[in-house]
Amino acid sequence: MAAKATNLSTFAIAELLHVDPGSVANWIDQGLLKAHRTPGGHRRVQVDDLIKFLREHKMPIPAELDTTPVRVLVVDDEEAVAKLIARAIRSQFSNFEVVEANDGFRAGTMIATVKPDVVILDLRMPGMDGYEVCRMIKSQDSTRHAEVIAMTAFPSPESEQRILDCGARVCLSKPLDLDTLLKEVEKSL
Length: 189
Fold this sequence. Notes:
Blueprint: E1 7-9, H1 10-17, H2 21-29, E2 36-37, E3 43-46, H3 47-56, E4 71-75, H4 79-92, E5 97-101, H5 104-114, E6 118-122, H6 130-139, E7 147-152, H7 157-166, E8 170-173, H8 178-188
Parallel strand pairs: 4-5, 4-6, 6-7, 7-8
Antiparallel strand pairs: 1-3, 2-3
């Protein structure tokens, strides 16, 4: 199969995803899947654009395409908490790439460079808080696919609704139940 190529035809994509080639053409025509045309008029899709499309639409990524590890960013201004969470994720998911940030500004930089798949995000931090970080993640094309798992030591219905409105999938209370957190990480994928 042409999965090692950087560009895939609509037929190669259809074969990879077990869908009709007409479905792939429709995704392209509707602007959902970015593609270009060869001089002969054939549609071609870059592998990175296909992976982005699959993630955005919560579709499984065929193993032939997904060569990058799942990337998780843990953001908490309490360094010990961030390290504890990172350690728990690494022990449960040994093939994940886990990085940490201890403030919102550092998280913003890391989000832009790491492009995480999952962000575990504390709401209350000095400087840029979790709400701002979440809005930033969801406003950028390159990071919009990331699932945000928010956490707070000061839970309230208002703060939970506010972070969900910013784009987080769930908001957990601190102190964290690590088993619940790990289940949420798994759900995020």
